[in-house]
Prior knowledge:
Blueprint: E1 3-12, H1 19-30, E2 35-45, E3 48-58, H2 63-72, E4 77-87
Antiparallel strand pairs: 1-3, 1-4, 2-3
Amino acid sequence: MGDVAVVLKILPSDSEVKIRSLMEEVKLAIKGLCELNKIEEQEVAFGLKAIRLEVIVPDQEGKIGAVESRLQAVNGVGQVDTDEVTLV
Length: 88
């Protein structure tokens, strides 16, 4: 099997959450579960920011769901959405 590139959008639980700190927590949460390709701050609207996360995961059943679950468990994360999934 190959690998899958996944783009995720992570919204903070509220506008008071510091995006830079949340980005560090996200990096720690996925360490060992998948390979971090890119992480960046993204403007959503009216000062609200999100995290755009690109990761590489093995093409195995349940791996993307495991990444989403791990991210959802991070303190300060309100919502995790999968935007794109592509075979690499």
